[in-house]
Design a protein that fits this description.
Layout lengths: L3 E4 L20 H12 L3 E7 L2 H7 L11 E3 L4 H10 L7 E4 L3 H10 L1
Parallel strand pairs: 1-2, 1-4, 2-3
């Protein structure tokens, strides 16, 4: 059973990239899903290669729905593992959503 969803943001929560420009309007369907599933007990987190301040400002309306967000320039695999450990969950109870297969493969390796 899914207990935690770890989200990438660029290309997932919006189409563009904060650092590269492009459309960064939050997808209202994803926002609604996060809000509804959080009420049902699913935990949400973020793992993004980005600037923390820019992301926090962009996500200000839903920032409080994310636990243990990891937003920096380090590779994601070990950070995904750390988020799972911080939430005291098993890897099997987690979904990691990223638009880059290199990141998902790296997370799979570490988890």
């Amino acid at each position: 059973m899914v207990k935690l969803i770890i989200w990438d943001i660029d290309g997932v929560l919006w189409k563009g990239s904060i650092t590269e420009g492009g459309e960064t309007t939050l997808d209202p369907n994803i926002v609604a899903f996060i809000q509804q599933s959080e009420k049902l007990g699913i935990i949400h987190s973020i793992c993004s290669i980005n600037n923390l301040q820019s992301v926090r400002k962009k996500l200000s309306s839903i920032w409080d729905l994310f636990v243990f967000p990891s937003i920096n320039l380090e590779p994601k695999g070990h950070r995904v593992k750390q988020i799972i450990e911080n939430c005291q969950l098993r890897d099997a109870d987690v979904v990691f959503i990223d638009d880059n297969v290199i990141n998902t493969n790296e997370a799979t390796f570490y988890c």
